[in-house]
User: Fold these one by one.
Assistant:
Number 1:
Amino acid sequence: MSINTIENMVNWIEDNITSNPTLAEMSDYVGYSPFYCSTKFRENIGITFKKYISKRRLSLAALDVKNTQERFLDIA
């Protein structure tokens, strides 16, 4: 799997982060099996697909808290 494919995975996640992206959807997008995508994602990014999604959501929520006047419960 090329670095471009890994970049496509990350870009796809960023584009779909608000719509609850799944490993199966991402693997369909890049054209590899979910198992292979999961393995290569972890090898190249350093964390699992699910952990990456969790960390990105937490980062986005932190930005929302910092940049808005919304309540924490609304952002969560």
Number 2:
Amino acid sequence: MPIPVGLPTRADATAAQPLRVGGLTPLTTIDFPGRLAAVVYCQGCPWRCSYCHNPGLLDATVPAAVPWPQVLAFLETRRGLLDGVVFSGGEPTLQAALPAALAEVRAMGFQTALHTGGMYPERLAAVLPLLDWVGLDIKGPLNASGAFDAITRTPGSGARTFDALRRLLASGVACECRTTWHAGLFGVEALLELADTLAGEGVAHWVLQECRAPGAAAWGLTAQQAARLGERFASFAVRRG
């Protein structure tokens, strides 16, 4: 969980001031490919994935840990030092203030990135013109087994994410799809099926991440199976640990 930072609060109010920020990471080299960036963690998420790595950000009613003007004050000190700002969560598109926040950050000269589960396809489409890169979480296969909706504990979530995926790919905004694989929730054959589905949708960049949550099933993917997954994509990576 990110730790709130203490900085002087800017006196001026902004259109994005209602943005509820749960924390701020001052520097990352891994969350925005090829850029040095800060990460703004947005409070609130409508899904309840059992392996969520930021459970403290789920409750949308929790007050902001870092006021938005304070985030801007921090970014002012990083002009010329950082390339971009990542909006992560939680789920950033849950908040109506996100477009204004993105616009303000871009006006300061930073590139912008978004981490999202795609649960609000229309809202994602609305902010795509304000984004340089998107990391879209694909929770699982979209099939009759219902694995996707079982993971999020939200009916219809899989259909919404794949709607968001199609809008994202059609936009031309640089993006990466990521799947956190918990072998106890769906097996290797379903993983291969998901790879086929994503490739069929036109996904070029896919990352498979190991689920590190307590009690998660042991990693059961062989090097040969990983190679089968990767042959469908222009770039494919496995992230473990």
Number 3:
Amino acid sequence: MDKSATYDATRDRVEHYFDRSATKVWERLTSDAPVSGVRATVRAGRDRMRDLMLAQLPADLHGARVLDAGCGTGAMAVELATRGADVVAVDISPELIKIAEARCPDGLRGQITFASGDMLSPELGQFDHALAMDSMIYYGASSVARMLAGVAPRITTSMIFTLAPRTPLLMTMWRVGKIFPSSDRSPSMIPESCARVSKALETLGAGGSLREIERINSGFYISTALEFRP
């Protein structure tokens, strides 16, 4: 099968999920509204992961252009703009972009450009930094490597992103579908490792370096942050 077709098919499944099946679920999960115990662990884990990813960037981002790839409802983009960055916040889901735009503080609107579409499109331009929180977890090592190699010429410093780790516990939890009920469960994620993605990058003949930063474990949320430097 054509590699780009595989990427496109997965991306389309993700768009279908967030736009037609789970918009309300994610709108509530990423708000301050009360949620169930299971989803509370996911919310807490995502908050910790966001803080961890932001900690890899300078505290002062004035003058920097930053890509929030797979911005969801916009929490990361707002934090980046608060630090002074010029942010391009992109998500495959137009519905999530609408929520992100509605939640954006008035004082930061001039610093954030929200757009729906392919989060790694070359048309988005050049960036000093890029972040992709839980938006690359649906792709296998070879696809992730191609995504990194494709975006590398447009990133001057680093890309911080997350993967679902290859742990037996996480794979079992995901198979039994305990995070969300079957009606709004997300597309299947693909647990991967830093080593497997690094090997895939080598196979492509792509340059750059990849390192694991830290894994966040919060109940039903388990995710690993990595840094890619072109």
